[in-house]
């Protein structure tokens, strides 16, 4: 169930779909206000090697769009991304770490 962010904040939800042919894979994110209004929705076909990499790409793009708008609320249900963020050091999937980068992770703090 989707829960709204606090008043005067936004929430970014991300997802990725990996197809049998990675060239047909895609990412997406949406940004919603505290009242649930859709502020921005983006989907894009991309070539990536795993769902975790796809979610990292979507998360990075969604976060950067959110920061550009002046907000800092972010949500993902990707356990691997959450674990990587909690570690705050380059552990696990280095491709994912390089996509997110320490600068992007610090914005989430």
Description:
A hairpin with an 8-residue loop joins strand 1 and strand 2. The chain has a single domain, classed as Ribonuclease H-like superfamily/Ribonuclease H (Nucleotidyltransferase, domain 5, 2-Layer Sandwich), CATH 3.30.420. Strands 1-2-3 form a three-stranded antiparallel sheet, covered by helices on one side. With 109 residues, it is α+β, with helices and mostly antiparallel strands. The longest helix is centred in the middle third of the chain and has 18 residues, at 51-68. The chain starts with 9 loop residues before the first strand and ends with a helix. The protein is built from three helices and three strands.
Could you state the oligomeric state of the chains shown? single chain
Principal-axis shape equals globular
Question: Looking at CATH, which topology would you report?
Answer: Nucleotidyltransferase, domain 5
Rg on CA atoms, Å: 14 Å
The number of E-state strands comes to 3
Proportion of residues in extended strands:
15-25%
Tell me the number of helical segments per DSSP (H or I, 4 or more residues long). 3
InterPro entries: RNase_H-like_dom_plant, RNase_H-like_EbsB-rel, RNaseH_domain
Protein name: RNase H type-1 domain-containing protein
GO molecular function: nucleic acid binding; RNA-DNA hybrid ribonuclease activity
Pfam family, one: RVT_3
Task: Outline the fold blueprint.
Layout: E1 10-17, E2 26-33, E3 38-45, H1 51-68, H2 79-87, H3 94-108
Antiparallel strand pairs: 1-2, 2-3
Helix pairs in contact: 1-3
